[in-house]
Design brief:
The chain is α+β, with helices and mostly antiparallel strands. Helices cover 53% and strands 11% of the residues.
């Protein structure tokens, strides 16, 4: 079959012209060929040549424009540039061998066949010739086309060698199965289970990179279940494994928090592409195993799991070398607050409680509400309807209070400097005590959200601590 009509990116005829001028064979290979066959969009284009990839990249760029910048990586024998919103990468055909204790390959020049053999899966080992007698023909020595038609992930050679050589490929197998909704060939999956321990030689950053792609799939639970069945999840996120199982005492049980978490993650993945919101869904009940208690009257309880879970987030992020910045704090915040909106419904929805929630959630209040709604996984349709009706009441109250008080980006009307000036203080713990007391008074609707009222309460709180103001309260108002 001729694939010329499927190769609609303008780079291909230019590469062919450059390859002809250099007397080289050029092929488009890997994921982009897979996606051409599957009619999927892909902006990462890999070109393999039997010869110098750097020379072919340079010649191709020169045909496009003398000003086109080419990134050259001599140590790897690769070159890359951007063209028509795509990353075009060039490499010479090569063969690889690996040491037992490293995933860094020993690389040698090779043929196209050698290059295809080193690929991870048959669906990624196809090539289309861009010049020469086989121009625009599919070169598919391992029947990747057949595996696409059968929706199978399979290695082109012995899977034990494939995964032992580069254990990250085990994560990639499950990622592709999740993204494409393919099955993993039984022999291939059994090999992943045998080699799961080899993941220990892969950096956390690379593992998380693949895991994040799984979390951003339409149905992440499928990938997480496969990671669990393969023995890979336990290698980097054992806390999720700890959620599994149901305990029963005196006929009272609790839901399987592992399965519940997977439902929540799927629910949130259908509503957002925000990776960190998906992480919050994944970790929202992470502390339930640590906080689980049995009460003869109430049954199973998990009191404080949101607080403990919020603290666990930073430990997990640190261990996996994930961002230790606003993204981590965002996940911590949502995990710590995920019970608050439903608690508003169970109690009387007061202005002070809504104010406090708006203040603590800030700009992330909408994401928090999305997480809370995703957390509803009951099989009882009337219960689900009741929960969503209650959440709607909370949303209405949030809008009402926000329009009135503008609490999302609220800051107390007084500052630490106000307190130090009023009481002639240097930095000390009393400043924090007074500031927190004034903030709580506003959030609890005890005083108006004005500078005048805040200054008066500041004076009152200072006097409770035995401090004497230098000025009358009225003189502080400005």
């Amino acid at each position: 079959m001729n694939y010329q009509n499927y190769l609609n990116h303008p780079i291909y005829p230019i590469v062919a012209e450059a390859a002809d001028s250099l007397g080289l064979e050029a092929y488009v290979v890997g994921g982009v060929v897979r996606d051409v066959v599957m009619r999927r969009h892909n902006t990462d284009i890999d070109i393999v040549t039997v010869g110098s990839g750097i020379a072919l990249a340079t010649a191709t760029a020169a045909l496009i424009s003398p000003d086109l910048h080419v990134n050259i990586y001599k140590n790897f024998g690769t070159a890359q540039f951007r063209f028509h919103d795509s990353d075009i990468e060039f490499v010479g055909a090569r063969k690889e061998s690996y040491r037992q204790d490293s995933r860094k390959p020993i690389v040698e020049d090779g043929t196209l066949e050698d290059d295809q053999l080193r690929r991870d899966f048959t669906i990624n080992a196809m090539a289309i010739a861009l010049n020469g007698p086989q121009r625009y023909e599919l070169i598919d020595p391992f029947d990747g086309l057949g595996d696409i038609q059968c929706k199978i992930i399979r290695t082109p050679c012995d899977p034990d060698k494939t995964f032992s050589d580069d254990p990250l490929r085990m994560m990639r197998a499950i990622r592709f199965a999740t993204q494409l909704n393919f099955d993993i060939y039984p022999e291939t999956f059994e090999s992943i289970q045998r080699n799961a321990h080899r993941l220990e030689i892969i950096s956390s950053e690379r593992i998380v990179e693949e895991f994040n792609k799984i979390l951003l799939c339409i149905r992440p639970s499928r990938g997480i279940k496969l990671l669990d069945e393969a023995g890979l999840l336990a290698q980097f996120l054992p806390e999720i494994i700890s959620l599994k199982g149901v305990d029963i005492i005196n006929g009272k049980g609790h839901k399987d928090n592992f399965l519940h978490t997977l439902e929540v993650v799927d629910n949130i993945a259908m509503s957002t592409t925000n990776l960190w919101l998906v992480w919050a869904a994944l970790l929202h009940d992470i502390a339930k195993p640590l906080t689980k208690r049995f009460d003869p009257a109430a049954g199973w309880t998990f009191h404080g799991h949101e607080v403990v879970g919020s603290k666990m987030v930073s430990k997990i992020f640190h261990r996996l070398h994930m961002p230790n910045n606003e993204k981590m704090k965002y996940v911590q915040k949502l995990v710590g607050l995920h019970l608050r909106p439903i608690a508003l419904v169970e109690d009387t929805i007061t202005d002070s409680a809504v104010r406090r929630l708006l203040f603590e959630a800030g700009e992330d209040i909408d994401d928090l509400m999305m997480l809370c709604e995703a957390d509803v996984t009951s099989k009882n349709s009337s219960k689900i309807h009741r929960c969503f009706r209650n959440f709607e009441k909370v949303r209405e109250k949030l809008i009402e209070i926000e329009e009135k008080d503008r609490m999302r980006n609220w800051r107390p009307p007084i500052t630490g400097e106000d307190i130090m000036t009023t009481f002639d203080l240097t930095p000390c713990r009393e400043i924090g005590i007074i500031k927190e007391a004034v903030s709580n008074a506003i959030l609890d609707c005890e005083i108006d959200n004005t500078r005048e009222a805040a200054l008066q309460r500041m004076i009152d709180e200072g006097r409770k601590l035995g401090l004497t103001p230098l000025h009358n309260p009225s003189e502080q108002i400005s």
